Amino acid sequence: MPDAIKLRIKRQKDPGSRSYWERFTIPYRPNMNVISVLLEIQERPVTAEGNKTTPVTWDCNCLEEVCGACSMLINGRARQACSALVDQLSQPITLEPFSKFPCIRDLQVDRSSMFRNLIRAQAWIPIDGTYPLGEGPRLVPKVQEESYPYSRCMTCGCCLEVCPQFMPIRTEEDKKRNFVGAQVYGQVRLFNAHPTGQALAHERIETLLEEGGLAECGNAQNCVKACPKEIPLTDAIAELNREAVKQGIFGWFHK
Amino acid sequence: MATPRFIVVGGGLAGLMATIRIAEKGFNVDLFSTVPVKRSHSVCAQGGINAAKNLKGEGDSIGQHFDDTIYGGDFLANQPIVKRMCEAAPGIIDLFDRMGVTFNRTPEGLLDFRRFGGTRFHRTAFAGATTGQQLIYALDEQVRRHEAAGLVTKYEGWEMLSGVIDNQGIGRGIVAMNMTTMETKSFAAEAAIMATGGIGLIFGRKSTNSMNCTGSAVSALYQQGMLYANGEFIQVHPTAIPGEDKLRLMSESARGEGGRLWVPRADKPGARWYFLEEKYPKYGNLLPRDIATREIFQLCLDGYGVDRKMQVYLDVSHIPREVLERKLEGILEIYEKFIGEDPHKVPMRVFPAMHYTMGGMWVNGDKLMSNIPGIFGAGECNFQHHGANRLGANSLVSCVFDGMVCGDEALNYAKGLKNGSASVSSAVFEAEVKRQNGISEGLWKADGKESPYALWLEMGKLMSENCTVIRYNDRLKQNQDDLIKLQERYKNIHLDDQSRWSNQEFLFARALKNMLHLARVINLGALLRNESRGSHYKPEFPERNDAEWLKTTLARFESGEPKISYEPVDTSLIPPRQRKYD
Ligand SMILES: Cc1cc2nc3c(=O)[nH]c(=O)nc-3n(C[C@H](O)[C@H](O)[C@H](O)COP(=O)(O)OP(=O)(O)OC[C@H]3O[C@@H](n4cnc5c(N)ncnc54)[C@H](O)[C@@H]3O)c2cc1C
Ligand code: SF4
Ligand code: SF4
Ligand code: FES
To answer: What's the complex ipTM?
Structure first.
């Protein structure tokens, strides 16, 4: 058993400044995850060389891989820091912020474009209101069981970070032009399958076909491998492709 | 009066529901949250949400749900509002169903229900074992609709620092800080709804809560004159997984679906002792949490824990894999991911952990408004509904119900206001911003010896050891002195990070001060309450004592200290009776 954990962390003071690396050595304890290592640095911000530094900043909340906040690159892989167990990682453990999203500071990135894309895709059920209107539609268990996995998408961004079609966001314009990514497909698939959600099915697919939509997907399948919730993203992409053809709004690009 | 504006602080279930209620009526809401609302703590809820829909032919009813809740709370809850909540619950489930929540279904396509603690009915609707996530996403989506329509403005990554209270003592808005740019600003509104959730971080890393559950905003209001009620009632959940950074919950739904608690028998090697089933044949593993927790705690203290450690087995390995996959996968995945053992095959090792606060900001029993007019409280951050002990799956329903009530009542209140926030002199807002800037400047300049994180862990240790399952007056007295010492040491703090950009240490240090004040409230309430009721248990006073203690604890902030008084509990609907489950 090692008595120390070695880390390399890519740091950046603010969006305008250059990134740099720092090394840390943390006393080993069993059952640590990357978050507890970062907490350790927070308490005693000293580099491996013994120099005082600032605590590393990162986002997190639930600590049980359900809020999606703590995504980062860990040993080069896009994943959540809370569910990354030190005992399963080779050392030195390398931590970097996601590369495709604008860096805010250290391991924090700005993923607000993902939420904005959910607006574009009208990712909601158009209910009349929250006043009492009786029961919801009946659904056979099979439909529920197929939809449930899509409803677990926590907007973590892993599927975008690994997608070859998803370009790094450097400017405000990039946010609008960019491919929406697998996450949005999963959500469109979810809402289009719902009896009430179907009302907007056509419009959602049309949105996907706009610049930054369905046409852009190169089908490398990286997204599905990276998704921590094992959401069948490529199934959604295939289904929506077929749906687009059926609706006759899918024309010249058949990949 | 100009068109009224509304502020909602908190984007969990309670805050999002309040936001929707107001936006749906065509009014503007400024919605504040430290995290993107979709990442709020409500996502952690696993097991489900209660409503007496009686879809299993068991004869469940709203009256039964009401009675279970009051009885489960050991008669400390004000009853009329709880009755309203139970009446609203079936409609709340229908609403979520209409919003597209992927609730589990019966073969006929109806909603499926499971059992939870403290009731003998199948009353809990669920979406796998990630119900909170599905519910909050449904509300998040509806809020996004209103955001697209321009009615909701989100301030994500803004932390509320305090309320703005005018010279007449009326709440007129809030002061908040941008957590990236560190800019501090005031925001005016006719009414502000607090929906800031739990306070688990007061117990350090030893709770099941998310990292932003500090209670800081509510504590700030308490220091501005808001009453804080029943602080001493802290729920410790019987089954959590040990962890370095937090104690992860293993939901009651594991037992609701047939999971069993056991330890190896000391007298017969190889044999199992199903200690709850043996002692409580009627409720078995589905006892209310306060009692199940005390049983596990005591059993481990007596040396019967697995490997003689503070742990017992929670076993679902006898349940068919197909059932586990359909109903519990979300939580079993957590165990597998974080512990590296497969609960389909081997029993899980669990122990109690701080989980929920029944206490919270005082709000009245009809409109959920605090003693500061214009400031409302919804969800876990208020004290209503759950009395001395919350039943599992009752929180989600109370959060949503509260959101509805607060949204509607805030609208009513604003309509009835003669002078809106626009009539308030800008000096009132400027003064509060100045006061907050003063606190910030103090911290920036601090050059003491103490680290905020180290102080936090010490506080967490003190609170976990003295203010959870078993409470003793001498230790609570000592704890009070120790907390005061921490407050003193806080004055000698320093920050390793001097950056004025996304400075998490600064924000944490700011919240820590507020956490310490709330810790004092919790501790003092516990010290004074000489009885045992629900989650509050003192071996020196093992019985519930209605003659002296059937009353709500009220903490008021006076010259830096909590001062305690009491008010009667409204027990007008169900006369208190002895509570037992065997
Ligand atoms: C692991 C776990 C499992 C649970 N399972 C269940 C269950 O199965 N059934 C059940 O009924 N209950 C369950 N509970 C309890 C339930 O999840 C919570 O009580 C409930 O979600 C609280 O919701 P809320 O809306 O009050 O607050 P939260 O969801 O905690 O949201 C609080 C919001 O306030 C914001 N906020 C806080 N402070 C500030 C500030 N200063 N400035 C700006 N914003 C701020 C946060 O950003 C967040 O958006 C569970 C709890 C835990 C910990
Ligand atoms: S399949 Fe499409 S969305 Fe997924 S990684 Fe490949 S290009 Fe990206
Ligand atoms: S689809 Fe999966 S990887 Fe992509 S954002 Fe959702 S949870 Fe994350
Ligand atoms: S902290 Fe929520 S996913 Fe890691």
So the answer is: 0.95
